Amino acid sequence: xxxxxxxxxxxxxxxxxxxxxxxxxxxxxxxxxxxxxxxxxxxxxxxxxxxxxxxxxxxxxxxxxxxxxxxxxxxxxxxxxxxxxxxxxxxxxxxxxxxxxxxxxxxxxxxxxxxxxxxxxxxxxxxxxxxxxxxxxxxxxxxxxxxxxxxxxxxxxxxxxxxxxxxxxxxxxxxxxxxxxxxxxxxxxxxxxxxxxxxxxxxxxxxxxxxxxxxxxxxxxxxxxxxxxxxxxxxxxxxxxxxxxxxxxxxxxxxxxxxxxxxxxxxxxxxxxxxxxxxxxxxxxxxxxxxxxxxxxxxxxxxxxxxxxxxxxxxxxxxxxxxxxxxxxxxxxxxxxxx
Length: 339
Prior knowledge:
Blueprint: E1 3-7, H1 10-23, E2 28-34, H2 38-45, E3 50-56, H3 63-85, E4 89-92, H4 96-103, E5 108-111, H5 117-126, E6 129-132, E7 143-144, H6 151-154, E8 176-181, H7 196-204, E9 209-214, E10 228-229, H8 237-242, E11 246-249, H9 252-260, E12 265-267, H10 274-282, E13 285-287, H11 290-301, H12 310-320, H13 324-336
Parallel strand pairs: 1-2, 1-4, 2-3, 4-5, 5-6, 6-7, 8-9, 8-11, 9-10, 11-12, 12-13
Helix pairs in contact: 1-13, 3-4, 4-5
């Protein structure tokens, strides 16, 4: 069996990671876009796998350049690769490789958690199997799985936290905030306010230790000197999140990750995503503006905002939610029969 996983940003790699390693380099080839640290992380964690890199986000200067200089050339490159290699199954968590695979008659699947209208329609017509989390309304005729994508690698069945991860950064469990600042130079965040964390950094200052995951490292000298900035790829970033007192992020993926790790997590961005609503309703994710932040932190750490304990929350999810890696492996088996 010859499989191709196309990966467009880091959470998608994490989503497929356990399935990729279970299937192994003899069966799997990988594709990605040159975007942030994505390529570096895949090469670091999957050195024995064949990796095809198509598209470069250095050309991303806005919607027009993204379409004309990244997306369309990338899909053309994928078409040439698929015609040459004839994969049995193509898997994604977006749409580009699905459209190409459909045109070439290759069975393919997509598992989305960000069903923007245009992407949703493209996946509907191109994917042979298409899954969404259990979103409430407006997503009829789509298969559902009972979990969020991040659960594929953060479930206690797969993720084993390691306190040794703290030693490199001289941290104590529960004594620091883990904060993520995303770049807004992507299609997901083009309409979002820039540098949200930077603008509110003076409010936190030196009040607590901060471990900062900063996507645009050119800005690192503008943050408080006491903040420790990660140099990705990081060997065990999720243990660093797991042992934090609080996770805050201007990007939605890492905010959800923090909540699934059982850490109270604050999403600082402006996207209203169905995936976020699931965790907002479960009481471990919170959406706050900069002006709401300090009063909310006071209520949270004084016990006026009640959250479940870390272990209770994670094992509650383990009982309630599906094993997403098993879903991926079963989809591949089913689609292989069609090839």
